[in-house]
Amino acid sequence: MTRIYILLTMTLITGACKKEEHASLYGEGNTPGALTSATVKNLPGAAEITYSLPHDNNILYVKAEYENQPGVKREVKTSYYTNQLTVDGFGDTLEHEIKLFVVNRSEQVSVATTVKVKPLTPPVVSVFRSLAITPDFGGLRISYTNEAKADVAIYTLADDGKGKMEQANVNYTTLPASVYTMRGFDSSARKFAFYVKDRFGNTSDTLRGTWKPLYEKALDKALFRKMQLNTDVGDDWGLPMENLWNGSYVGFWDMFHTQAKPFPMWFTFDMGVTVKLSRITIWQRQTPAQDWIYNANNPRKFEIYGTNNPNADGSWSNWTLLLTHEIVKPSGLPLGQVTQDDIAAAAKGEELMVPLDKQPVRYIRIKVLETFTNSAINIAEMSIWGQP
Question: Model's pTM, two decimal places?
Answer without folding.
Answer: 0.74
